[in-house]
Amino acid sequence: MFWFLFFIFGTIWGSFLNVVIFRLNKRKSIFFGRSFCPKCKHKLFWYDLIPLLSFIILGGKCRYCKKKISWQYFFVEFATGTLFALVAFLNLKDFSLVEVLNLVKLLYFTCVFIVIFVYDLRYYIIPDKIIIWGIAVAFSLNIAFHAIEQNCYSIALDLISSVLCALFFFLLFYLSKGKWIGGGDFKLVLFMGLVLGWPYILIALLVAINTGALVGILLILLGKKTMKSEIPFGTFLSAAAVFVMLFGERILGWYLGVFSL
Ligand SMILES: [Zn+2]
User: Fold this and answer.
1) From the CA of 56, how far away is ligand 1's center (Å)?
2) Please, where are the H alpha helices in the chain?
């Protein structure tokens, strides 16, 4: 049952993430000011802001001006709820301090990936405010958690592999003058390396590049994009990172099992 509580908790966090995404784009303070309808500017009250339910009850329209509310709001609330429940279900074995701290860490990383997923998809940019903070927190936590485990070898491996992967993407960005990938992408790769560690960063990059290419080809075949269209690579990177964060150990185990036969 406890994972259902995490779903509810996640939907509430999701509505907060929607506010973060909206205000980052408008360059407004994330923590101050009341919520309002972006179309008619009418102030929203608590009963307009209940995660998932308000959207369903109002039929996806503003209560005051009846204009459509973006599906993004519903999607982010639902996705955050589902991912929070999954993260808790897969990672919380007991309620010891280390387990709970580890869970908080994973939930924070999940939120960063959700914001970047949506933001890059909508605006084709990865906000520095989010990614720089993410890198700083992931770096500090990496040091702290490895210090507890007293494992110098794995911390060096994680740090070096993160920097090397990020450097590779920085070179792609630099050599193509930003045409192949954006300036935010190599920072995101650094963040992913710190979050996932070795060899999971490699799996995530392979998943992101393959799904990105597949979706890109599909969209070109469907006539929705051309070869020159921009692809929000940060969206694919974020999705792959969450996927590997949740199932990386299982994927690696399966992969090694298949090839050791
Ligand atoms: Zn309105």
Assistant:
1) 16
2) 2-25, 53-57, 71-91, 97-123, 128-149, 152-175, 183-196, 200-221, 233-259
